[in-house]
Amino acid sequence: MTSTVSCADIITLATRDAVAFSGGPKYAIPTGRRDGLVSNNSDVDIPRASAPVQFISQFFANKGMTVEEMVVLLGPHSVGVAHCVSFQRMLLSFNGKHDPTMDPALDSKLVKVCNPKAGRVQVSPPSAFLDLNTSFIVDNEFYKQILLNRGVLQIDQELALDSSTKDFVSSFAVNGDKFQKSFADAMIKMGKIEILVGNDGEIRKTCRVFN
């Protein structure tokens, strides 16, 4: 049997379906991607959660994405968790005082989560939901939360504060339909970045290894 569906397409389609199952938009995804022949840890190119907005904006711009698309693609931080190591520096950088950009109640809660009582057995690294209101739904609640200074990650909260991104945050916060449409469009566009087509790469028979 000839292989016709690549692992790259499977991952892209699974992501699309996971978004839809989580309350996000349903959208069509072009297929035809092929799988790479090289896989190195050193090639991973993902910004850190503590990177400033301007750095993240330039990262997206280098991939052909706009600032608005960057803001909308961070919207699904309404789902999932972050390990304390990703944001603990924000809790410890103000000489025992609250981070002035974070809601004091959230700050106190995160401090407790990331500093469990002595003697308590940890079965996994401590973590916190990125959106405490709709933690399992892809919606525009994330934007509402960061406007209330309830962003867990540094980059999330800075979106609501930076002059280049705060208007987009406000717009998505008040218009859930606009967020859904813009997110779908941005996902389709991002899914076309640096892909292999034609005779490049291969279609793997087993996704974890090259043919």
Automatic annotation (TrEMBL):
Binding site for heme b: H77
Keyword Glycosyltransferase found: no
Binding site for Ca(2+): D131, T134, D139
PROSITE patterns: PEROXIDASE_4
Residue ranges of domain Plant heme peroxidase family profile in the record: 1-211
Co-factor binding details: Binds 2 calcium ions per subunit.
UniProt-listed Enzyme Commission number(s): 1.11.1.7
Top EC class for this record: oxidoreductase
InterPro entries for the chain: Haem_peroxidase, Haem_peroxidase_sf, Peroxidase_pln
Residues binding substrate: P47
Cofactor: Ca(2+); heme b
Cystine pairs: C7-C207, C84-C114
UniProt keyword list: Calcium, Disulfide bond, Heme, Hydrogen peroxide, Iron, Metal-binding, Oxidoreductase, Peroxidase, Secreted, Signal
Pfam name, any one: peroxidase
Gene Ontology terms for molecular function: heme binding; lactoperoxidase activity; metal ion binding
One example of a Gene Ontology biological process annotation: hydrogen peroxide catabolic process
Domain of life: Eukaryota
Substrates-to-products reaction catalysed: 2 a phenolic donor + H2O2 = 2 a phenolic radical donor + 2 H2O
UniProt function note: Removal of H(2)O(2), oxidation of toxic reductants, biosynthesis and degradation of lignin, suberization, auxin catabolism, response to environmental stresses such as wounding, pathogen attack and oxidative stress. These functions might be dependent on each isozyme/isoform in each plant tissue.
Family, as annotated: Belongs to the peroxidase family.
PANTHER family given in the database record: PEROXIDASE, PTHR31517
Protein name, per record: peroxidase
